[in-house]
Design goal:
This protein has five helices and no strands. The protein is mainly α and about 140 residues long. The chain folds into two domains: about 80 residues, no CATH class; about 40 residues, no CATH class. It is elongated.
């Protein structure tokens, strides 16, 4: 900040020794050190506050950008396709609880609406599962 070299500091020390005197110089130096320390702490706290506000502003800007993107996505979704025939159905995945409850070789044999079981053993498993589901549902 200040460009003070070694010889300038020596000159300031000699002038202070002559003006203040050797008896009061240690007390004055101690007081000046305390003031300089408190000034440095004040400046660092102000810098920390400014940095915190700048980071809050950056976060707010990021949130506003995300909101603008989401708003544009909503507008696109509201427009939608012109003809309802253009839409295709989304394939549905089997729920995780079905896949976990039935061993993997029998998981494919679970009857889905509009599907038929592959073999007799799978058909029995499906009937048992459907009967258990009906009992649980009732």
């Amino acid at each position: 900040m200040f460009d003070i070299g070694f010889w300038e500091l020596c000159l300031i020390a000699v002038v202070a020794l002559v003006v203040i005197g050797p008896e009061r110089l240690p007390g004055v130096a101690r007081t000046a050190g305390k003031w300089i320390g408190s000034a440095r702490r004040f400046v660092s706290s102000v810098q920390a506050d400014i940095n915190a506000e700048v980071s809050k502003a950056d976060e707010l800007k990021r949130l506003l950008d995300e909101q603008a993107q989401i708003q544009s996505m909503h507008e696109i979704l509201e427009e939608g396709p012109g003809d309802s025939d253009e839409r295709k159905p989304v394939p549905r995945a089997k729920p995780d609880y079905v896949l976990k409850a039935i061993p993997s070789e029998k998981a494919e044999a679970v009857e889905q609406p509009g599907e038929k079981p592959v073999d007799d053993e799978a058909e029995e498993t499906v009937k048992e599962n459907n009967a258990g589901a009906k009992k649980h549902h009732d």
